[in-house]
Structures are given as C-alpha cells and as structure tokens.
Amino acid sequence: MKYMSPLEEMSKTTPTRFWNDNCSLADLTFSISHGAAGATTNPVIVGQVLDAEFEKYEPVIRDLAMSNPAATEDDIAWLLNEKMAVDAAALLYPKYKESNAKCGYISIQTNAKYYRNTQKITEQAVHFSTLAENIMVKMPVTAAGIAAVEESIYQGVNINATVSFSVPQTLAVAEAVKRGMDRRTAEGLDNSLLHPVCTIMVGRLEDWLWEVADRQNIIVDPQAIVMSGIAVFKNANRIYKERGYHTRLLAAAIRHHHHWSDFIGGDVSITIPPMWIRRFVNSDVTVENRMDTQVEPRLLGQLQKHFPDFVKAYEPDGMQPSEFVTYGPTVRTLTQFLTSYDKMVDTVRSVMLNVQE
C-alpha cells in the first residue's frame, strides 16, 4: 500500500481541506502532491516570494515595465500580484475542474489601503475575478469590507474574507454572503459557482494575546493562550453548523500543529505555510476527528477572566462591525500588510529605475 502523509490522508478520508499558504509555484506543486486543495496570497506572502525568487521575477518586472511605459510603481506591483495569482490558478485548475468548482482556488488580496472604502474593494474584487475561473478574492473584515462582501457576492465574485480573528466578524461575513446570494436568487441569478470562505487568523489572535499578557504582566497557563484561536474557531464552527451558513470557515496563521491537528474532521479548510506543510507531512500526528473536542473549560475560563480581547473574539456579540477596524489584531495585521506592500513596491521601483526604455 502506498504511504500517505497525514495531510494526504486527511484530505482523502475527512471533509477537512488544506491550502498552500503562498503562491510559490515550487511550494504549491509540492503541496498539491500531498492533497492541497487551494492556495492563498497576501502582501506579506507576495513580498516573501518576491524576495526568495527574485532572480525569477526581476525579468518579469522588467517586461511589465517595458510593456506599460506609463505605469506607476504601484501599477506594476499589482500586475505582478496578478501574474503570480494567474500562474498559481493554472496549477490549481485541475483541482477546480475535478471538484466541480468547490476547490482549487487561489486567493488574491485586495489593496489593504482600501480597508475603509467599500466601493474600491468591490471594484478591485470584480476585476480580480476576471483573471481566471478559479480566482477567490480576499477582503478585510472591517465595516467597509463587510459591505464589499455582500456587493461582491451579488456580482458573482467568490470571496475570502480575511483580517478576521473573531466570531462576531465571521458571523457578519456569513450574513453578508447570505444577503448577496439572496439578492442574486431574487433576480434569478445562478449561485452554484459561489463557494465563499471566511478566514479566522487563529495564530494572529494568539500572537496578540501573548503581547497583551507580556505588556500587562498577566500570568495564565501558557496552554490557555495556545488554545485561544482554536477556541474561537471551534465556537464559530459550532454556530455556522447550527445556522446552516453557506460560507466555509478557513483557519489561517499557523503557529504550531494544534492549528492544524485540532481542526481535523471539521468541514473546514486550513491554509498552511510551506514550512509547516513539510513538517506536517513528516509528522506522527494521527488523522482523527478532533474538531468536536472542545477546549478545556479550565483554559477557557482563564482566557475569559484575564483577556477582554479574547471575550470580544469568542462571544457572538463581543463586537459590533464599527469596532472591527480598531480591534488590536486588526490594527496590527493591517499595519503589517501595508508595510509589506510598501516594501514590495520599493523592490519593484528598484527594478523599474534600471529599465532601459
């Protein structure tokens, strides 16, 4: 019998799916060989791929600059983002066809600078959706982003709601998707190709609570913080199942194996960085249903007692949409995305300034 890695076994024997958390074609090829059903990008990821594979992409930037003589550095940076997404979409296209459009997507992220502008997010999302059949568009779960989710779904765009860390955000996304799909149904439009996703960045919530604990001298069982994002994800999953939402949950920002192994068995997806994919492929983690195993009440109680920001993330009514943009993990993540984007533009500029027209 052919050996199956734990990731491949999970993909074949459970409803749990995993994605490759970058757009490197080499990494994606390896991940697909172990059962990956999708891939994702963001400004941090694109910048990392650009740095790691600069020799490959420098001539691409030169060609884009030569072909678009009036383009700005930002224009070329976005054309590069699009090319990376389209190339990855081609690798994933067989998965897309085999699954009848349920899997095989590459996510490309809208400009993080648009986090307050519904119209600009939607316009960019609609444009990205034309690049390939299996494009999924990421947008932040701010108040403006939620409105963009509804409008983008209405316009037939498959979305991946991101910069999301909490149950209230995931519920707002699911309801926005429902409104968009209901509008389409009322107009006789087909929803069969819409397979929206809502991300919970479980590791980034954990990162934030470690920072808060350090800053405020909070002492709890370390395992409580380790399980914080997991507790939020499982609570969101429970509510999604109860309400029968069409949107699929996706766990992101992997920090350790619990961010994968504790979700096995759920009808969810997990986006895993290549480094962790290689570790998981060679791990001894058994493939068994852990999604239905709840976080220990003792750990949950410590989180609820000491971390108001955990309560905001865990409780369905912990935040209102107007609060999403000022939530600590949101501020931190948007800042990182914007910094990474600026760094990527700097790299593009360094190439463009040496292009001979």
Write the layout of secondary structure elements.
Elements: H1 6-13, E1 17-20, H2 25-33, E2 38-40, H3 43-52, H4 54-67, H5 73-98, E3 105-109, H6 118-129, E4 135-140, H7 143-154, E5 159-162, H8 167-186, E6 197-201, H9 202-216, H10 222-226, H11 228-243, E7 248-252, H12 258-261, E8 269-272, H13 274-281, H14 297-306, H15 308-314, H16 321-324, H17 328-352
Parallel strand pairs: 1-8, 2-3, 3-4, 4-5, 5-6, 6-7, 7-8
Helix pairs in contact: 2-5, 3-4, 3-17, 4-5, 5-17, 6-7, 7-8, 8-11, 9-11, 9-17
Question: Helicity range of the residues?
Answer: 55-70%
**At CATH's second level, what is the architecture?**
Alpha-Beta Barrel
The residue ranges in which pLDDT falls below 50 over 5 or more consecutive positions are none
Q: How many structurally independent domains?
A: 1
CATH top level class name: Alpha Beta
Task: Estimate the strand proportion.
Answer: 5-15%
Structural class: alpha/beta
* Outline: globular
Cα end-to-end separation:
58 Å
Radius of gyration: 20 Å
The succession of helices and strands, N to C, reads: HEHEHHHEHEHEHEHHHEHEHHHHH
The CATH topology is given as TIM Barrel
